[in-house]
Amino acid sequence: MNPKRDPHRKLQIRRLPGLLSAVLFALMLAAEAFVPAQAAAAVPGRPALSTITSPSYREITVSWKEVPDANYYFVYYKAVGAAEWKKIATVKSAKRSYTHVSSKEFPILVGRNYTYTVRAYNSRTKKAGDYDHRGLTIKTLPDPVPLKSAAWNDARTAVTVTWGKALGGNYYRIYRKTSSSSVWKSIATIKNTRTSYVDKNPVAGETNYYTVRVCNNKMKVLGRCNATGIAAVSAAAHADAESTAKLLKKTGTAGKTSQIILVVDHNLSFWEKDADGDWSRKLSVYCGYGQNGLNDDRHEGDRTTPIGSFPILHAWSGEYSTYNQWVESSRPVGGEHLIDYYQYKYAMAIGFNRNPTVYKKGSAIFLHCKSYDHWYTAGCVSVEEAVMKKLLQMSRNGVYMIIVKNRGDITSY
Asked: pTM for the whole thing?
């Protein structure tokens, strides 16, 4: 049959343009329906505020969660009681936090409450989304006081307490507690032009602890303080601490961290670095170590503790392929199952034999709780359980450990 004379074929050809029109019309309707939805999606959502902190009395940091369709965030603040928000910053969407530093235009005063909120913005559509109208609020406090030392005089009749300068107030308030009382007692208030105080009435026969906080009389607000405090030591011990602090400052380790756990023979001490690069001792206790002593060339099974400078890590394994590493496995692996040993109730893994790891040089060197009936270990360092718990509370990411036989060896690391 000749297709040009087929009546059905001719009918299909005549109807085809109409069918195309219908399809195009449907597509146009769909496109019109999609445009408002697309435009609406370009209006950013409301940022969920996460945290607010005050690193110092002149700084406040606010953070928030990511918002789709935002390429900028507007940050606002106001003093509690103020009617209007003040826009203080515009940050790119890659950032999720902003630190407001007090300025003439946007001041932060100590002892005041400030509220912050954030608004997302789309620069393509030039639209800003909604914001948390309540915001997050924080009260600014004077800066925490960095404690330096507390030393008995030679006659053991007085204790001299020293600290670093802290801002935000006009007075320092000094507190004392003892080994038999955990309650801090205010013993003196002095002007902020001084950074030392002589306690002429320490409690005899007990360990005296001291802490200091900034006091702002005008705003009637007290700053934060070191809740652990610093223990008073003898003048000779204080001199030793100052000498050790100078040695630590000369070490290569001091350039890598702001915290060092130092082992010199059977003494373990905890040190922190201040903004000036000076080191101060926060804790000093007796410790145990390998049954066969300290060794700078140890190997597995020799029951010695390694000498050197090591980062504090996590946990470990004893198999060849994963030697001295953290392992989570459904099958049994070589090494110790730490939960089976009470000594590891609180523990830190010492970064010995890492980068590179040498098989059989030694693994699983820990700082852990001492055994009930002895101090020595198979190569780890041991302290009392209460001390181990305190060390974990004091330590931050990046803490290092130096282990030496004599104080004079400290600068080698």
From this structure: 0.57
